[in-house]
């Protein structure tokens, strides 16, 4: 029988938040693989560029059947007689992250009340449903269907899936907030490592003399992702209200640390809190700088070092087609290498933040990052490939680390009750950075080339601009102070929020309503980690194969 609050109707829905409250004996280490199962799927958004080249010749097959030069983007959305431009397909990438940030901000509070299971299911329906709509768009050659399917509907799924585990993990791991969120958000960065080679293999399998095999690949990946995401969503459990690990007490260092509150802020108030906007700028500046580099790392390496990458003294503009192809292979390996640092940094830096604090972690990001960005023009001038590669790899580790550390930073400052909703609102900084970073890097590069500056020097001014971004982020981070008491919920307000969020002190229904105990067998834990660990290990293996070409 379920224990009901007075005046509250019994809830029987298997998606209801009450059904996800863990019983005694549940192992909290089952929650991270559930989060990874969702993040590894939606993280394929990072790897969608693997589809651009095949889609750009979906009609011509071997050679693109180009649209008229004067065809507008609006006309291209509906044409079925010529191939799409890669620049037009690239708008899906922009839609991904704009919709991710905006949907997380809009529905973050709903997620806190509905629970991670319901949010995970909706995310699976949106992300995988969007892929199926995109498959139809490819089959019928309608670009607007790709934008709507994967870009808009899929983007909403990205936002809900991205923030679905944040609040839950932080509540399960009050002793290791950074590490817990780092594990999940590492999965988002790792999604492309698994999805890109999988997509490449599927397209190769489905390709025929008259088809590039993309729509079939979308269908298969949608089905695989749906199975993984639903398994993750149904595995989610939330701890009873006030739960803490057995034998763990809040360390005195945290009790006496004014930067770690024991109170809670309501998500609807954060827009008016100065500290929220300071952290918004911290994330925006860190991501703007990092995303600008991650998008141009491969051409930067090629243009800065040219023929020296293959042991000849020619500059980039002097290379012939065979030499360009040779350094292109090396650059692809470099892109794979920095993706590993992006992923590893999410776990390592977030875990380190548990030791040195979130504020100090971001100080390291901005100070060390500023020095490394400034060193890139110097490494190019000196012809030091090792110095350049080391700088970019560490920069990308801090780019990923910034994403993974920010949820714990928010929990420290604003409390854990609505940290998922607050994190959702903060992700608007990511959406903003996704526009600022690439625009600055791409347009500055074109401007410098237009001035006749040699290719190996066209990124110099850009790197100094990115250093300026980091200086702004550092100043904002140093200005973060503990919140005034007026921002926190009163006991009555907190009680009402707990009621709306269906918080319970004990599980009233677990699984099929079995009741009190929910002891997690060891083999279930092993299987859960293997289900996410094996695909991730395969993705890392395939990436290391590409990395080997760099060396």
Residue-averaged pLDDT, rounded?
Answer: 87
Number of helices: 20
User: Helix and strand string, N-terminal first?
Assistant: HHHHHHHHHHHHHHHHHHHH
Our measurement of the CA-to-CA distance between the termini, rounded to an integer number of angstroms, reads 63 Å
User: What is the CATH superfamily of the largest domain?
Assistant: MFS general substrate transporter like domains
Largest sheet: none
CATH hierarchy, class of the largest domain: Mainly Alpha
Question: What is the number of beta strands?
Answer: 0
From the helix content, strand content and strand pairing, which structural class follows?
A: mainly alpha
Percent helix among the residues? 55-70%
DSSP strand content: under 5%
**Might you state the CATH topology name of the largest domain?**
Growth Hormone, Chain: A
Radius of gyration, CA atoms, in whole angstroms: 24 Å
Count of folded domains? 2
Residue windows where pLDDT falls under 50 for at least 5 positions? 1-11, 507-516
Please tell me what the overall shape is. globular
CATH architecture of the largest domain: Up-down Bundle
